[in-house]
Write a structure and sequence with these properties.
disordered N terminus, about 40% helix, four-stranded mixed beta sheet, globular, 7 strands, alpha+beta, single chain, Glutaredoxin
């Protein structure tokens, strides 16, 4: 009985996900989406983000956390002062049904003082995955927004020092 249940869950998970080819959304306005922080605060993005350059790091699957962590560590080690938000972005009906369990799992792995910077996107997950594409979902999608909410930097090929330096150069241009 248990293997059949596992198979049904696997088929349901695979059946919910739509594949979108990767694309570069630079020069587009970031779409309006809603999510909830791990502090259980509902937010509408980008409206409720600070009116200044902001880094958004999107993860589409649990395995993208490794890449997200490398980006966050790199930003910290280089003393990048631009506010960064982690956006677990999940599409499909099945994950929405279990969002409480998914969010509680994230809360167990993330220090409480960081919960406000983690905003989970469920209902609008497909919209964001369509914006950037979701091929190679283990790679985080790194987006830099300017104060007009336009995407001025995008990277989706996995963390690298060169990509981090490119992001920092774009941040410096926005601050001048």
């Amino acid at each position: 009985m248990k293997p059949i249940f596992t198979l049904l869950i696997a088929l349901t998970l695979c059946g919910c996900a739509t594949q979108y080819p990767n694309q570069n959304p630079v020069n587009q306005v970031f779409p309006t989406v809603s999510g909830q922080s791990l502090e259980k605060v509902t937010m509408t993005l980008p409206n409720e983000l600070p009116q200044e350059p902001v880094i958004l790091i999107l993860g589409y699957v649990q395995n993208s956390q490794f890449d997200i962590d490398r980006w966050l560590i790199g930003l910290d080690m280089t003393e990048t002062r631009t506010k960064a938000y982690e956006l677990p972005t999940i599409q499909g009906m099945f994950p929405r049904m279990f969002k409480t369990q998914i969010d509680n799992g994230m809360r167990r792995g993330i220090p409480k003082e960081l919960w406000g910077g983690v905003i989970t996107i469920y209902n609008d997950g497909e919209q964001l995955q369509q914006l950037t594409g979701n091929d190679n979902p283990n790679n985080a999608r790194v987006i830099l927004l300017n104060d007009k909410r336009e995407i001025v930097y995008f990277y989706d090929r996995g963390f690298s020092v060169a990509a981090l330096n490119g992001l920092r150069e774009h941040i410096a241009k926005l601050q001048n």
